[in-house]
Amino acid sequence: MSEIDDLVARVAQQLQSQSGTATSGATATTHATSGKGLGASDYPLYKKHPELVKSPSGQSLDDITIDNVLSGKVGSKDLRITSDTLQYQGEIADHAGRSAIQRNMARAAELTAIPDDRLLEMYGALRPYRSSKQDLLDISDELATKYHATICSGWFKEAAQYYEKNKKLKGDN
């Protein structure tokens, strides 16, 4: 379905061929799970558990058809991935021994709550010499309090410290 799905499938396949089971290469983590008990054998999610893959408005994969798009029953926002789906994919990746992919999925899940325009502004603020330290810390606070995006909030705090140390803040150039 996507490049990430393909990557996770290849990783799961490699783990199965190396050890005989998909989960033997998994490492213990403290990451939150969906409670669904998903593992590497649940990949690809949209084929193995289509009931878990929903649009942001709650429509199932079966509801997303050309006819429903043409009739207006499915809109562009229904074609976006949800936080839950990203978390499920992360859980599968984690159980396949790919904790880095799980962490990326967790960050991406947080970002689904942020409006596109604001998200682009935030990314723009991360470009060197574009923001003051306080600008970055304010965005960090906004991410944590308004969007409950604690992982992404931490990235902005880290960026503020790094940019200050390496003279990459607004006015440093």
From TrEMBL:
Comp. bias intervals (Low complexity): 17-35
Listed Gene3D superfamilies: Propanediol/glycerol dehydratase, small subunit
Pfam family name, one: Dehydratase_SU
InterPro entries (UniProt xref): Ppandiol/glycerol_DeHydtase_su (IPR003207), Prodiol/glycerol_DeHase__sf_su (IPR036091)
Cross-referenced SUPFAM superfamilies: Diol dehydratase, gamma subunit
Annotated spans, Disordered: 15-41
NCBIfam families: PRK15443.1-3 (NF011972)
Protein name as it appears in the record: PduE protein
The organism of origin for this protein: Secundilactobacillus kimchicus JCM 15530
Lineage: Bacteria, Bacillati, Bacillota, Bacilli, Lactobacillales
